[in-house]
Amino acid sequence: MKLIIKVLTTSVLVLLISHFMSGVHVASFTTALFVAVVLGLLNLFIKPVLVLFTLPITIFTLGLFLLVINGLIIILCDNIVGGFDVDNFFTALLFSIILSVSQSLVSLLLGDK
Q: The dihedral of CA 4, 65, 77, 90: what is its sign?
C-alpha cells in the first residue's frame, strides 16, 4: 500500500512541478504515473551502477556528482516515456532537485519512515 501511495504522490509532484517549470512538459496524469514508475525502476536498477562507476569523481566532488547522476536519470526517463519532455540537462538537474526535496517534504508530512 505504501508503494502505491508513494507512486501516486510522485506522479502528482511531477505534474505540479511541470506546471510551474517551463522546461518540463507532461502530457497527462497517466504520463506522470508512467514517469513515477520509470523513475522508481531507473533509481532501483540503473542508478546504483552509475554511482559505482563514478565513485572516484563522486568522492572527489564530495557527493555533488550525485546531482549530475540524478539529472542523467531524468534525461533517461525523458527518452523512455512518451509525453514526458525535458528541454535540456540543466532543466533536468533542477527538476530532479525540486522533485527530491518535494518527495522528502511529503514523506515527512505523511510520516513515512
A: positive
Q: Tell me how far apart the alpha carbons of residues 35 and 37 are, in angstroms, rounded to a whole number.
A: 6
For the segment 8-66, what is each residue's pLDDT rounded down to a tens digit? 999 999 999 999 999 999 999 999 999 999 999 999 999 999 999 999 999 999 999 99
Alpha-carbon gap, residue 25 to 88, rounded angstroms: 12
The CA distance from 47 to 45, in Å, is 6
Q: How far apart are CA 68 and CA 60, in angstroms?
A: 14
Q: Render 20-89 in DSSP notation, one character per residue.
A: H-TTEEE--HHHHHHHHHHHHHHHHHTHHHHHHHTHHHHHHTTTTHHHHHHHHHHHHHHHHSTTEEE-SH
Alpha carbon distance 102, 61 (integer Å): 24
